[in-house]
Queue: 2 jobs
Job 1
Amino acid sequence: MTDVVRTGAELGAAVAAARGRVALVPTMGALHEGHASLMGAARAVVGDGGVVVASVFVNPLQFGAGEDLDRYPRTWDADLALAEREGVDVVFAPTVAEVYPGGDPQVTVDPGPLGAELEGAVRPGHFAGVLTVVAKLFGLARPDVAVFGEKDYQQLVLIRRMAADLCLRVEVRGAPTVREPDGLALSSRNRYLDDEQRRVAAVLSRALHAGQDAARTGPEAARAAAGAELADVPGAEVDYLELRDPDLAPLAPDATGPARLLVAARVGTTRLIDNTALSLGVGTG
Ligand SMILES: Nc1ncnc2c1ncn2[C@@H]1O[C@H](COP(=O)(O)OP(=O)(O)OP(=O)(O)O)[C@@H](O)[C@H]1O
Ligand SMILES: CC(C)(CO)[C@@H](O)C(=O)[O-]
Ligand code: BAL
């Protein structure tokens, strides 16, 4: 039985009554099997005696002017059915006024330098909005553990850093990206794509695979192989393709070992992001 709560007070009461550990899965709704995998991971961490809370909240603070806040998919009935199927104990689905009773908050979380790079360079203010709402969700749900998808890798790195830097006493876990059979990462925004755009969108994961395959030869080869896949694909406009270390710091040209390859592109008016781990250097790829 999944309880639906709409206010911070109701959520506080629900988690205060919990006997086991509390795991939180923040989402913006329009739930898909990627979200379901996070809920499954949350249950695996806290066990049957724990409490899994999923939030469904389209956070205006992380959308810039001209972005898709108004048309972001809202599929409440299907979201609740998926949460019930996954055995989520509590769904927190607040209104904007409940989360931001005084309008935009005066105090927000500064994501630091990484917040202005990659996604943050294309979407100024985005990560301040993300970290602020996640900090509020942590304050409301007081989770022991919170689970986020690696699909939004920069977000995951920044939330981990926020939890550590601000001593939030929550364990931040990443979960692997769930993909369509052709490699496209599941994403709520995929539903904006028409058939032709959906076909084009598979180039992102093809590029990441090409980068992985070339990684044994070194960073430049990995980046070039991914770039070659993305070059001249009609209908796909690349925002960035970057190879970084696993914490998203820049890599030395001769770096070896673990790294992260990240891509963002616009297919029509839809922005898609994806990333993969890879291992650089001869004998490690
Ligand atoms: N394919 C996926 N596999 C695993 N986790 C995912 C996947 N897609 C999203 N998530 C995770 O689900 C959580 C909620 O994300 P969100 O509700 O924004 O969904 P989304 O599909 O990423 O939507 P959007 O299209 O807005 O990017 C985040 O932690 C995100 O990383
Ligand atoms: C973490 C999050 C739920 C905060 O609004 C959002 O950025 C998302 O869905 O990834
Ligand atoms: N999936 C990350 C939330 C966003 O794009 O706003």
Job 2
Amino acid sequence: MAKFRDIINYFHPYWKLSVFSITASSIYEIIDLVVPYAIGQILNILSGQPLDIPLQQAIASISSFINYPVNKLLSLGVLLGLIFVVTVVRAPTQPWLTAWFHWDIAIRARRDKFQIAIEKILTLPLEFYDENNPGRIAGRIARGVTNHTWTYPEIAGQLIPKLIRVLGIFVFILLIEWRIALLYLISFVIILGFGLKELQRIIKQESRLDKYSENTESRNSELITNIKTVKAFATEAREMKRQNQRLVRELKVLDYRIHKGYVKLITWQKTVIQFCVFAILALTLVATVNGKISLGHFVMTLTLSSMAYAELEPISNLAEVFARRYSSMLRFHEFLQEPTGSDSASLLEAEESSYKFTGKLELARVSFGYDANRQVLQDINLLIEPYQTVALVGRSGSGKSTLVKLLLRYFEPQEGQILIDGQDIRTLDVGKYRRRLAIVHQEVDVFNGTILDNLTYGRPSASFEQVQEACRIARVDEVVAALPQGYYTIVGERGVRLSGGQRQRLGIARALLVEPDILIFDEATSSLDYESERSIQLAMRSLQGTCTTIIIAHRLSTVREADKIVVLDRGRVVEVGSHEELLRHEGIYYRLHSLQETGELLS
Ligand SMILES: Nc1ncnc2c1ncn2[C@@H]1O[C@H](COP(=O)(O)OP(=O)(O)OP(=O)(O)O)[C@@H](O)[C@H]1O
């Protein structure tokens, strides 16, 4: 659970600068109080009343220093000079010692935390992405970072200095008349205390609202990703209705609970403030009439107390804005506190791996389940010799892709071990290990960039000749030849759209370029026509003896030439052998094969 402390720690690297700039801002707020004080003293001079003793002493010292007699003119000159220094002279220094640093800290912290968030994105385990959709994650990061960035200058540059000013005013008034100071103190404790209580309520509602907003954003993101399905089933109206219901739910919390609560708070505050201003006026007037305070002090007290009460509204506004952002900031910290996956490669590692394997794989008594109650793979024993081509086949949900995920170390088996060249893969550096493997999925991800960038994604140092060779084998050369700028054509989000089959070919070439020790095809040719698939298969033969190949395919024609076909059923290896051997065995493989050949189900 994230806490308030995490929000403070967000800016921790800049704490020295922060203390300096907050102190500077607070000093400026206090210096401001000199103006009403000086005006009060000027009024005393003009009305023939005595100046405050410390001021008299200061003027006497100046008089002896400049060798000029103490008189009305000198006193007025000193006070005017004081006002000049605290208003005109300080003006050009203030923004540089305050606003500059507040924003500088906020902007630097923004960069730091975005970096950490990106690191988090890259290192979170895959399960996290199974459970949270991109819209939810992106929204949480963006809101969290933006809210921290905006909040810092408001708190450091305004809220804290304003509170210090209010405290300074209290001290000033206390020096003049303690009874007025007491009223001032009581009123502030009541107003701020009640305000804080109300803010706690607002924070609770904001946290609710934040969750609601995340749900709406998450669904928006799903709608964008799945828009084809929405359109195909013509469910636009239903989706619109659902999102509208969510928006109404948000509106109710926002308008009736948060906004209304805030307006109530302001109404109450304004009434109490006006009452206090009036009470202070009456008290101060009585004290002046009774001769307890001078005319100058009367004016000063009224001016100062008005200044203090005038600060209450901005203080409340700032506190309310902070309360509104509080829960989204906490949720950002909760995201940062998500445990990093053990499957993550180091972010500091070099591009090339120093490992080299023959590609011999051994799975010994491997069992695995995504959750403890349900085993997806059970007691798998399998030996894959170097440079063999092994096919994994079986019904949907039998555990083929899961087995590949274990090979890639996205997950770790709960029992048993996986060995590569005799070494348990858990003992290897995950990044270096994974760089010796390459996988082509059914859905090939295309990044926004040139086709060449996409091809060399796994190996940016590949030469152009190597790229061309991989493209020849994967038959990407035909695709490239038809593109307007060849290898330099922009593809992906803002470029040319590639068909499913073209993407798969690109994925195959990208994997081949890595020159892996183990090459995995997870339904990697399912979108290709038979002719393209066959020609890729023939070209791939030239790779025999360079890497171990694991193929997952439902189309059994794809796997018949494999050295070994492994049939999985409900998470267990039930048959192993060559195509001919398995047909002779007349087991599951035989039935699947007959079904694909004849379209008939065998009993
Ligand atoms: N991330 C996950 N979390 C929980 N269960 C999962 C996850 N991925 C897969 N499963 C479950 O594990 C089982 C095996 O899935 P897997 O994807 O390995 O099967 P498969 O043989 O590759 O299927 P297909 O041929 O349809 O791709 C299925 O029952 C599936 O529901």
